[in-house]
Amino acid sequence: MHIQAEENAIVPVRLFRINTGSCNGCDVELAVTSAVTEFDVEQLGCRYTEAAREADILLITGPLTVRAREEVLRLYAETPQDKVTVAVGVCPVSGGVFRDSYAVDGPLERHLPVDVNIPGCPPRPQALLAGIAEALELRRARREGGAPVRRALPVDNFPARGRLSYDAGSCVDCRICRHVCAAGAIRFEEGETGVSLTLWHNSCVFCGLCSHYCPTGALSVTGDWRLDHPAADAFRQVERGEVPYAPCVGCGEPIIPAAPQLLHAAFRRPNPDIERLKSLCPACRQQMSIGVPRR
Amino acid sequence: MSDCINLTSEIRERGPGGGGRDGFEACVAAALVCAAGEETEVLWCQDRKGVLTGWCRLPSGGSLLPAARAVAELDGRLAMVTAYLPERAREKGEREIAYHFDLDGATLTLTVILPLQWARVPSLTAIFRNCDWQERELMELYDVQVVGHPDPRRLFLDHSLPHAPFERLVPYSTFTNAATGKVLWDKVLAGEREEP
Amino acid sequence: MSTKLIELGPHQLALEEPMYFRVKLEGDRVADLDVLPGQVHRGMEHLVMRRNFYQNITLLERLCSLCSNSHPSTFCAAVEEVAGITIPERAEYLRAVADEIKRIASHLFCCAVQANVIGETALFRRVMEVREIMQRAKEAIYGNRMDLAANVIGGVRYDLSVEGAAYLARQMEAMKQPLDELYLQYSNNPALLVRMAGVGVLPRAAAREYAVVGPVARGCGIDYDVRKKSPYGAYDRLEFEVAVQEGGDVRARNLVRLAEARQSVSLIEQCLAQLPAGPLCADTLPEIPAGEAIAKSEAPRGELMYYLRTDGSDMPVRLKWRVPSYMNWDALKVMLKGEPVANIPLIVNSIDPCIACTDR
Prior knowledge:
The complex is a heterotrimer of chains A (about 300), B (about 200) and C (about 350).
Chain A: H1 2-8, E1 13-19, H2 25-35, E2 46-48, E3 57-61, H3 69-78, E4 84-88, H4 91-94, E5 116-118, H5 125-144, E6 164-166, H6 176-180, E7 186-190, E8 194-200, H7 209-213, E9 219-221, E10 229-230, E11 238-244, E12 246-247, E13 254-255, H8 260-266, H9 272-277, H10 282-290
Parallel strand pairs in A: 1-2, 1-3, 3-4, 4-5
Antiparallel strand pairs in A: 5-10, 6-9, 7-8, 8-11, 12-13
Chain B: H1 2-14, H2 21-36, E1 43-46, E2 52-57, H3 64-73, E3 77-84, H4 89-92, E4 94-103, E5 106-115, E6 119-122, H5 131-141, E7 144-147, H6 179-194
Parallel strand pairs in B: 2-5, 6-7
Antiparallel strand pairs in B: 1-2, 3-4, 4-5
Helix pairs in contact in B: 1-2, 2-3
Chain C: E1 3-8, H1 10-13, E2 20-26, E3 29-36, H2 44-47, H3 53-61, H4 70-83, H5 89-117, H6 121-142, E4 151-152, E5 155-156, H7 162-188, H8 190-196, H9 204-210, H10 214-218, H11 226-229, H12 250-274, E6 290-299, E7 302-311, E8 318-322, H13 324-328, H14 332-336, H15 344-350, H16 355-359
Antiparallel strand pairs in C: 1-2, 2-3, 4-5, 6-7, 7-8
Helix pairs in contact in C: 3-4, 5-6, 5-12, 5-15, 6-7, 7-12
């Protein structure tokens, strides 16, 4: 009986952190998960360790700078073979706002395998706990066999800045969102049937500047912060939509019609003449307003 | 020189916020003329909150040391050093370094104009101890030699990185790993197409 | 006496961020120090020249998460100076609210970490719990606990509704008693006194010579606060005393921080009381002409300075900034000299060093 009890006693899962050159946002929030009762990793049966060789779960923050690389790889080499590696924040996955700097050598995946990503900039403690729980589940599945199960978490209604949402129906293809995005998280592609927008959640830093400057509200910040996912799915974490071309009612050229939201933003109460403008190409709009196309 | 010392005591009494704006500006101007020559002029701007910002382009690189000493005499504190390639630097063959000082809340910027090639400035570390890192940093980021720096090792740049990354404005993509963004986006767009 | 060199990294220094020291010891005492930064160098001053002004708001907010609001707000002030934009009065107050909220959280984090370093785990957790009040308030008002996204060129992009202001006022009320209690603890608790008083002393003359800034300078009796010396934003209409201590030791620096955190509560209350009605932003997408400007602010760690040079395009020709931490590293040589090795982590953390800021 006694032996049985000892075997069942919960041995804490040890978490080890490596900062590869982060802004310290993720690191300070991870510190919260060791200091603040509400978010303590103890509730997941974990505790932090200062020894790389004890790492059951490895938490990595930062975009991986050139200068930090050697030390990061040295520490990584000390960690056990069977640990689960978690990329915390978008920096290790995509470089976030620091991508393409001469001093950055990420993404992390170029140097070592990653198992779980926790997007966010920084992720809130609840998101960190969800990501660590996902890593625990992966660890359990690897040891016991079977597929990892994604556990549902209680959702709070706190107005956190989470995943961006895109409504192609109100997009006017002005591309101000891409212009103001510091993280290069937004791409426009002109296809055969329309213009498509792709927003990559692993690059987005959730600042909401795109949504702030969007004239029609096509991009909006949602409260959905639960974005942890297996690293294998990193490139599928996207928001996407297509603004279809429509023929110009004047000449038939394919154009992006102006969304009603834009007309209402520009003219408080659009009259039928103004409404007609939205389905005309620029040349036909000139024809309609000044009679001849301007040279 | 005795005039300059008198000015120093005067500025200490008046200060930039002490209602003696004209007196303060005159003192700084006179001290700089004394140190760096007749043609040295300071353009002062005052913002809506009354904060003074002075801009002074030094007549020559040689006047940097005496001008810096004059600022130290005025109880100035070195606040920041900015090296940069101004607009049309390559056409004109010129570069600039701006030394920003704090004079009890007012900011005075002394700018030296240097040749683009073989630029050299004297180290200010003997006058302002805190210039040490500022100069080490500008030496590694720009192609500028700081003469007389006590410890000219690299500071922030990893040894594997090329010297003077801030000089290499064009071409950019070959020098940075600007390809990373493209590689990642190719995967994002490809990953997306695999989906049903 | 035997001399030896040891190298200390983030784990030995009890830092959240990677920083390395080469320490020269004589016996078991520190004789000299070489600070080896660069681990968090992300080439940001280069990146900002490749990004437009709007992108740089978000990029700069990620320079460092502890003083994240100081960077975009000071950068925006420099852009506004170049463009001749006067931001609306309401925006001035809302920027001050954001800055002061960040100051409280930053100062408390620093004090908490030091408690942890000296093994006062219960106090560490207590300070972190008090800080949580601010973290929650940040998330409720701005949507993120670290990066507020409060600033845009020409003003701010968040507002305080009547309910929002009332909520913030309640959080401020909740901070008062704990902050007063913490001030007394860091001032008088014998367990803290024995570790912090008379430790890591920086004499005032050395503080001037090394040109330190922020709470490190004010802890040495230097009465310098950018909010007073070079008023900006709403600070010319807000009342506060510059927190100054004379000791120059670890204790003095912490008392400055805790006094400032308490004063930040008062500053936020004044902002809420005075908050004028009106627009949040002067102009949505202003043209930025050619020019140059300097903007300064009092970030949590001290004087922050930005220099901006523009050429009429939408990217900076040069954007240079100097963070307060940059000025304080060198003075560790004075503070650590003659100290036992065991005091190194505490003294290093007592300057509230920000490596992300320093390395950029």
